[in-house]
Design a protein that fits this description.
This protein is mainly β. Helices cover 3% and strands 62% of the residues. It has one domain: Outer membrane protein transport protein (OMPP1/FadL/TodX) (Porin), CATH 2.40.160.60. It starts with a strand and ends with a strand.
Length: 434
């Protein structure tokens, strides 16, 4: 188990409203070369050190130290339309919509691989698997008195994954690798009902995960890679505060301010398989099939809660115990991509890719996570500054689907909405082999 003290990654997911650019709340942005080919074959191509983000075993393909670093700008687009619910008197209330509830993010990455000998290599990396922001609070400006306050608000989440890995070449065909992830997360989350903060959190923290990988080389032109990133349940400790109406025996319905000691968040395991085939001297074909166990992400459980009645002077502390703050019941998803690389000459390289990204929402819909199936259309170009130094650019257009949904609010009951999400990626990367 890994523990994040006051980490907002878990808190934000628990209390709703993250939106990233892949299924669930994943973020694919680890390199410009990967973006340019829709991450097809990225766990085994090993054309630069950024392969460390996908498969530690691929470090065995390097015979000299390698460095790679870059920046990705993710321009997130989230449209929420036709938000409505039944009013107090049963008359429909139209809350309108938001043209763009997303925000842009600059996401850095850095990687270094160092072969110790012809068998062993080590690597170190810093990159992001999660990082996003949404703000739907403008839906409340014309609806200040009676609205789904528990579903609407602002969320900012940033995480950095620090990785240390090692690979071992067993023979000319097979290599194995393993790594440890230290994840730092920070951000802010708020939900307000007028001037009353239903949720108001600013937090950060550290947690630990890991990755295992393997590569198999048929020959220098054909190889396969696979990896398994494991993410055990996260137990979040810190100040976790909510305000909600509750029925108190002998008192009636009162607003209760609750402080929880912990949140338990189940995260998804990720498995991926990749292939690379150099079909001619100039053209290579590559592909990836990635499976994410989002069915493990069924609910967020708040533990050891104690509450106080807000509007009752000198109210005693009320034991609340464990509460399922948010149910998701997501389904497992696939990310399938196909790409090509074309070496124009000794200076220029072109890349292109397509990916189908399966959404995770199953029985329970969510305005705050407007997930859907997505299509990725990507392109990239690389320029060799010297025989050992390269600069790469990647571009991706991510197109989601329009989804009509109903989400239940504890304040107003069922809320209808239409959501659509997408993004544009712009990425630059510098790589050097020593």
């Amino acid at each position: 188990m890994k523990t994040m003290n006051k980490t907002l990654l878990a808190t934000a997911v628990a209390l709703a409203s993250t939106q990233s650019l892949a299924a669930g709340f994943q973020l694919n942005s680890q390199s410009a070369t990967g973006i340019g080919r829709a991450f097809a074959g990225d766990a085994v191509i090993a054309d630069n050190a950024s392969v460390l983000a996908r498969n530690p075993a691929a470090m065995a393909l390097f015979d000299a130290p390698a460095f790679s670093g870059g920046l990705t700008y993710a321009d997130v687009s989230i449209d929420i339309k036709d938000v409505s619910h039944q009013g107090i008197l049963g008359n429909p209330v139209d809350m309108g919509g938001i043209d763009d509830a997303g925000s842009g993010k600059v996401i850095p990455n850095i990687f270094y691989i160092h072969p110790l000998n012809d068998k062993v290599a080590v690597g170190f990396a810093a990159f992001s698997n999660f990082g996003t922001g949404t703000d739907s609070s403008s839906l409340l400006k014309d609806n200040p008195l009676y609205a789904p306050f528990d579903l609407i608000g602002n969320t900012e989440v940033t995480t950095v994954n620090f990785n240390a890995s090692v690979s071992y070449r067993i023979n000319e065909h097979l290599s194995l690798g393993a790594g440890v992830d230290m994840i730092y997360g920070e951000g802010a989350l708020d939900r307000y009902m007028g001037a009353t903060p239903l949720v108001d959190v600013e937090a950060d923290g550290i947690g630990f995960g890991g990755i295992l990988g393997a590569t198999y080389e048929i020959n220098e032109n054909h190889r396969f890679g696979l990896s398994y990133r494991f993410s055990p349940d996260v137990v979040v400790e810190g100040d976790i505060n909510t305000i909600s109406p509750q029925f108190i025996p002998g008192v009636g319905i009162k607003n209760v301010a609750t402080n929880f000691e912990e949140l338990e968040v189940p995260l998804a395991d990720i498995f991926q398989f990749a292939g690379f085939h150099q079909l001619t001297n100039q053209f290579a074909l590559h592909y990836t099939a990635q499976w994410t166990q989002w069915s493990n992400f069924h609910q967020i459980t708040a533990k050891d809660g104690t509450g106080v009645i807000v509007d009752l002077p000198d109210a005693p502390t009320i034991p609340v115990g464990d509460v399922a703050l948010k149910e998701y019941k997501w389904k497992d998803s696939w990310f399938l991509s196909l790409g090509g690389t074309y070496n124009v000459n000794d200076k220029w390289t072109l890349r292109a890719g397509y990916a189908y990204d399966q959404g995770v929402v199953d029985e329970i819909s969510s305005i705050s996570i407007p997930d859907s199936d997505r299509q990725w259309f990507t392109a990239g170009v690389g320029y060799n500054l010297t025989p050992k130094s390269t600069i790469d650019f990647g571009f991706a257009y991510i197109m989601g689907e329009e989804v009509d949904l109903i989400e239940n609010s504890a304040v107003v009951g069922p809320v209808n909405a239409t959501t659509e999400s997408g993004a544009m990626y712009y990425s630059i990367q510098y790589s050097h082999q020593f």
